[in-house]
Design brief:
This protein is of the alpha+beta class. The chain has two domains: about 90 residues, K homology (KH) domain (GMP Synthetase, Chain A, domain 3, 2-Layer Sandwich), CATH 3.30.300; about 30 residues. It has three helices and three strands, in the order H-E-E-H-E-H.
Length: about 120
């Protein structure tokens, strides 16, 4: 990723987070956080990874509804020729990490149980 792409992604992430927090009045978006933004090499689109503490389906619906508004706000705030299309994706990193930790915990419990069986009394 080029430096300018990373910088633009960071700027878009900050602006979207601010817009969601201060300007969008939809309560379904109150607990949405923007985790990362990856901008395409040609700048045509930006993939926005987000998470929420609330209901995912409601937040996803609200984000899709607010997407044109968010893009218009970005166009007014960013000093770039063309604002990228916004592609919102649910960030499943935390869910994956929890699954991996669960599997590791189970393996550790099995290992401890096996060691207890093998120990002479």
């Amino acid at each position: 990723m080029k430096h300018t792409q990373a910088r633009l992604g960071h700027e878009i992430r900050e602006r979207i987070a601010t817009i969601l927090r201060q300007r969008v009045g939809d309560p379904r978006l109150a607990e949405v956080s923007v985790n990362e933004v990856r901008v395409a090499p040609d700048g045509s689109y930006a993939r926005v990874y987000w998470g929420t503490l609330g209901p995912v389906a409601a937040a996803k619906e609200a984000i899709e509804k607010a997407k044109p508004y968010l893009r218009r706000c970005l166009a007014a705030e960013l000093q770039i020729r063309r604002v990228p299309e916004l592609d919102f994706r649910l960030d499943e990193t935390l869910a994956r990490a929890e699954r991996v930790e669960g599997v590791l915990r189970e393996l550790e419990q099995e290992r401890v149980a096996k060691q207890k069986k093998e120990e002479p009394a």
